[in-house]
Design a protein that fits this description.
Order of helices and strands: EHEEHH
Largest sheet: 3 strands, parallel
Oligomer: single chain
Strand content: 5-15%
Number of helices: 3
Number of strands: 3
Strand order of the largest sheet: 1-2-3
Number of domains: 1
Shape: elongated
Distance between the termini: 61 Å
Length: 108
Amino acid sequence: MRAPLPLPSDPADVEFWVPPFGTVGRGADLLGRMPGLRVVQLLSAGADAWAGRVPAGVRLCDGRGVHDASTSEWVLTATLAALRRFPAFARAPSSAASGSPTRPRRTS
């Protein structure tokens, strides 16, 4: 049996709830303890796992588009890091005599 989700306050007082990511089963169990609930806002783009679990009259909102900007920034940063060999730089010793892992290799 999984441990119940920690609650910062009385669930009966909740009107707008953002369940922790990846807690469909345990999170859905709490819905019956939230009689004043009006909105469930998910952090993920898909809401299929929650469909049918949310009580009638409660609006279910997915997180479609919420992560677009941060994902784009991460992809750009990861691409630049790979092109500049940042992982090699991070693993290299901090000695100037060891050479510069950030210098691009010459291809010709």
